[in-house]
Specification:
The longest helix is centred in the middle third of the chain and has 24 residues, at about 75-95. A hairpin with a 2-residue loop joins strand 8 (about 210) and strand 9 (about 215-225). The chain has two domains: about 5-135, CheC-like (Chemotaxis protein chec, 3-Layer(aba) Sandwich); about 170-250, Surface presentation of antigens (SPOA) (Roll). It has helices at about 5-20, 75-95, 150-155, 185-190, 240-245; strands at about 25-30, 40-45, 50-55, 100-110, 115-120, 125-135, 175-180, 210, 215-225, 230-235. About 25% of the residues lie in helices and about 30% in strands. It is globular. By secondary structure, the protein is of the alpha+beta class.
Length: about 250
């Protein structure tokens, strides 16, 4: 079964490539000491998996405008790593049913101990990223002793139901394929008749969109399955974007 680290690795590879300039690739590597001035960020998780998850960055990463020109690079790293931590928690829930939340996210000084390491590669440049994973399934608490008879007869407060997303996993949502679109004057729409052709803004070789609500959750190519149209998925939105498509249900 996937752990939080597994989910973080998958999410980070996608988000960092999408958000950083040059679309760098994240690849696993052997740990090695970082130069003086390394920095990082740590997330504290609570729930079905809990503990501290820290990401320590090579200080040289601040010398490249991966976050864009004129942007505070360290602050930008804090934002993208926080988003990655939250998206990994959502992915853990989707893949395993385990629910956890980011209770605290903070900047930390560089640390030397690491559980695993990665290389962020862009062209001929590469930066080391260390991860210290201390997230574990909590041990079950010891059973409490029986309460006195008088306390047992007292009215206990009703439990408050969790608003966790697992309560919505069986909800059916309408998914729509969008091949393209085009704006038309009302007059042309009223004049449409059998045999007319409406040209869309998309080439036949372009991927089509899978839409839930008003959000694009995936893209792919149209195929036929048993005589019905189907979608072979080639791109999937980050978990956080997919969850936004059902925000109206929370």
């Amino acid at each position: 079964m996937k752990s939080y680290l597994d989910c973080w690795t998958e999410v980070a590879a996608t988000l960092l490539s999408q958000a950083l300039a040059g679309e760098p690739k994240l690849e696993e590597s052997l740990p090695k000491p970082l130069a003086e001035g390394s920095f990082g960020f740590a997330a504290t998780l609570k729930g079905d998996e809990e503990g501290r998850f820290a990401v320590i960055l090579d200080p040289e990463v601040l010398e490249s405008p991966l976050m864009g020109e004129g942007v505070d690079q360290k602050a930008g790293w804090g934002e993208i790593l926080k988003e990655t931590a939250e998206a990994a928690a959502a992915e853990l829930l989707a893949k395993t049913g385990k629910k956890c939340r980011i209770e605290k996210f903070e900047e930390i000084a560089g640390e030397s101990k690491a559980s695993c390491a990665f290389q962020l590669k862009s062209g001929e440049r590469a930066w080391t990223i260390l991860v210290r994973d201390e997230v574990r399934v909590p041990k079950p608490s010891a059973p409490q002793q029986a309460a006195p008879r008088a306390a047992q007869t007292a009215q206990a407060p009703l439990p408050i139901l969790s608003s966790g997303i697992e309560l919505l996993l069986d909800v059916e949502l309408e998914a729509t394929l969008r091949f393209g679109c085009r704006e038309l004057p009302l007059g042309e729409i009223l004049d449409l008749g059998p045999g007319d052709v409406v040209q869309l803004d998309r080439n036949v070789t372009d991927p089509v969109d899978l839409i839930v609500g008003d959000k694009i959750v995936a893209r792919g190519e149209v195929v036929l399955v048993d005589g019905n149209f189907a979608l072979r998925v080639t791109e999937v939105a980050a978990p956080r974007k997919r969850l936004e498509s059902i925000r109206c249900l929370f």
